[in-house]
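Lab notebook, bench 4. The sequencing result for the construct came back, and we need a structural model before the next group meeting so we can plan mutations. Quick request posted to the team channel:

Model the 3D structure of this chain.
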Amino acid sequence: MKIIFFAPYNISENIAIPLDSAPRIRCRKMYESLKSKCEVILVGGSAMERRLKINRLLKKNEIENVSGFYMESPNCSLKNFDINFLSLVKRNKIPMSMFYRDAHWKFSNFSKTYYQKLKYKRKYNKSNKQLQYFKIIFNYIYSSTREFAEFTGLNSEYLLPPGGEILEQRKDKKVGILFSGSPKKGFQNLIDANEILLSDGYKIPFFIVTKDFSFSIQDNVTVSKIVSEDIIRKVHIGIIPLEPTSYYRLALSLKFMQYLGFGLAVICQRFPAFEKYDDQYGVCHFFDGTSRDLAEKIRELIQNDSLRESISKNALDAVKNKENWGERARVILSDFKKIETT
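Done. Here's the predicted structure in C-alpha cell form:
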C-alpha cells in the first residue's frame, strides 16, 4: 500500500524540526509508524515546501497510484493551495482520513494577547468553516476522546489508540517524581504539595521539565528543558496537575501516554479520558484538586511499593499491548481498506 501523509508545519523533509511540542512529536511518530507498515509520501513543512512537493506529485501523476490519504490537523488554517490539493484527492476517489487534535479556537479564554482577543471572532469563523469542509471531504475524522468528538460534532466511534512508546526502564531505587510540560492552571498545587511534604519530613527528588521556568523552587527540585534518559531512570511517579476545565475535560494529553511509556504511576485529577484508561488498565491515582490531597496521594505511593509497582506494570502493559503508535497506524491503514470496499 502507498499513502500520502499530509502534515503541514509540524514535520519536514528539508529541515530538522525540533520535537518540542505534542503536534510535532505526534507527526514524527505517526510518520515513522506508517512508514514501517507501507510506502509513505510525505507532504509537510512550510507553505513553500508543501507547494513544491504537491506540484511534483501532480507533475509525476503520483496521486493516481496511492491507496490512502492521511492528514494530521495543522496548528493553523490551511492555505488555498492546500484546500485545492485536498479537493483533488477527493475527486480522485482516494480514501481520506485525518486526526483532528484540538479546538482551542472554540474557547475565547485561550486568546491571551489583546491582538488575539480582537481576532477571536475571525479565527472562530475561519476555523469553523474549515472544520465543516473537513467533515464533507474526509471519510474518517479521528478524535482523541469520545467527549471531544461529541463536542465538535464528529463521529464519536472514530477514535484512535493514543500513541505510547516504551523507553528504557532501568530505575534507581530512590523514588523520584516527574512533572513535564507547561506550568498551566493547577501547577501551583504541585509546588505547594512539595512544600507540604518537606514540612512533613519527605524530601523527595522532584524533576520539573519545562521551557517556561519562572517560579521559585526548593533544593529537592531539579528543573530541566528535556526529559533525559537520566531523568527517566530516576522517576517513578508522574504528576499531571491540570485543572479539569471545560476544554481539558475533552482531551487526552500526549504527556499522559509518555508517562505510561516511562512506566510511571500517574497522579492526576478525574478527567473523563484519564478515568477511562484507569478503568481499563489501572494506571492512575486520583487527587481531588487540592495541594493537600496531592501531597497525600504522593505520600501513599511513596510508602506503598507494591501499589506503585503494580501501577507501573499496568502502564507498561497498556502501552506494549494496545496503546501505542504501531496500533494507531494499523487502525488507520485498516480503515483505508474498509473505505475501498464500500
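The chain has two domains: 2-161+324-340, 177-321.
Will bring this to the meeting.
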